[in-house]
């Protein structure tokens, strides 16, 4: 009978753990406000009254890039003829490949 009572307590403890595990700190946090957003009235009013939130340069439609060059790159990519990049790396030293010569065989 003790074993059944012990299992019942264990099951009740696990059930309570699972049920209480879903609680968030939102309910445990002691606040005098109705919501977490309360207290931002001044910042909210300032943001609402901004005439144009975008910077001036966002309206510039003159994009300083070469469209023909980009189109040519897209065509090369489409036909799988991409030129491999040269000179990209973190080192400022240029390494040359060294030709390895076979070892001289001992003369008999």
Keywords:
mainly alpha; 108 residues
Order of helices and strands: HHHH
Question: Rounded to an integer, what's the Rg over CA atoms?
Answer: 36 Å
Runs in which pLDDT lies below 50 for 5 or more consecutive residues are none
Roughly how many Å apart are the termini? Answer: 96 Å
Strand portion, in percent? under 5%
How many H/I helical runs? 4
- Sketch the major β-sheet: none
What is the share of helical residues? 40-55%
Shape: flat
Mean pLDDT: 76
Describe the structure.
- The chain is an all-alpha fold and 108 residues long.
- Helices cover 41% and strands 0% of the residues.
- It has four helices and no strands.
- It has helices spanning 2-21, 25-28, 41-48, 67-78.
- The radius of gyration is 36 Å and the shape is flat.
- The protein starts with a helix and ends in a 30-residue tail after the last helix.
- The model has no long low-confidence stretch (mean pLDDT 76).
Q: What would you say about this model in short?
A:
The protein has 108 residues and is mostly helical.
List the helices and strands and how they pair.
Layout: H1 2-21, H2 25-28, H3 41-48, H4 67-78
């Amino acid at each position: 009978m003790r074993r059944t009572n012990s299992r019942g307590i264990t099951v009740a403890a696990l059930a309570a753990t699972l049920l209480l595990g879903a609680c968030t700190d939102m309910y445990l946090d002691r606040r005098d406000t109705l919501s977490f957003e309360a207290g931002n009235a001044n910042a909210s009013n300032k943001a609402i009254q901004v005439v144009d939130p975008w910077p001036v340069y966002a309206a510039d439609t003159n994009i300083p890039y070469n469209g023909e060059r980009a189109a040519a790159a897209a065509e090369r990519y489409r036909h799988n003829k991409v030129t491999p990049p040269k000179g990209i790396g973190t080192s400022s030293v240029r390494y040359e490949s060294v030709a390895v010569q076979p070892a001289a065989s001992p003369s008999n």
